[in-house]
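Q&A FORM
Asked by: J.P.
Topic: structure of CN hydrolase domain-containing protein

PROVIDED:
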Amino acid sequence: MASTEACDLIVFPELTIPGYLSQDLLYNPEFIDRNLEVLEEIVAASRSVSPGLHIVVGYIDRNRGVGKPFTNMAAVINAGKLIQTYQKQLLPFYDVFDELRYFEAGSETTVFLIRDWRVGVAICEDLWNDKDGDDYNYDNNPLEQYRNTNVDVLLSINSSPFVRDKCSVRLEKIAPASADGMAIVYVNQIGGQDELVFDGGSFVVQDGELKHFSDGLFDDSYEIVDLADQRKAVAPAILTSIERLTELLILGLRDYVQKSGFSELVLASSGGVDSAAVCKLACSAVGPEKVHAIRMPSVFSSQHSRDDARTLHENLGCWDYEVPVDHEAL
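REPLIED BY: S.T.
REPLY: Here is the structure written out as tokens.
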């Protein structure tokens, strides 16, 4: 689509090819080799698209120098060639992040030309060294480095997982960095990866103003943004709502099931609030016809809870089973 629409650039999130974060799977040589093979396949495929289209995609490379064994990279591809690479500089090692365990940090910026625009590349944490947080005590500041090189556009590829209100924080913290006219294109991962769920929320800011915001979680289409368009955008209120949290729970569960190779779900259903919520989320994630809800009443179960569980399953349309717990046999 990007080629057909004569786009200049298509941007994919951080570590798009191997997934974020693959943890000790990185120590499997075949995993790294396959990730590099896919990168070569993308380079080869770029020969058949518009020659003006540039592709930025995240991948893992081996560190051929001293230090940690791997590097967190972004590739810049155009017309069948790998024209530039960028090595992530700021590696988080707090909360759910453990990148310092695997990756060696870079120190250089990467700038390439698209038409008359100077375009820079950063990866996730690289934009967070001047955000006044205790977790961001790094020696260098890639964002300041790019300001000093006078880039027109800074691409930031991310795998930033969901935290309540984090989407609003990203906008509040990053938008002011574009106040001097530099456009920032922030592209974030969407979907579940093991215990993490990525909430997307990709955006474009320029002159301190929001120019574009992507809020869809279940839409696999790609949005086209014209940086010359002067219209402003507004982030939807849903980003901090219970509805959004529900969507993210469904997204995380659905992706975990699909990526793990499961086809159906089995769960215990008591008729209580907790199991009812789980059953509803499961049906929304994979479809009620693929959910097997098992009631396991005992002598301690009330008739009310038994009836509630059965009614819930009927209303949701999932499979219903009863396997009584026989305490005497125990």
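FOLLOW-UP: The radius of gyration is 23 Å.
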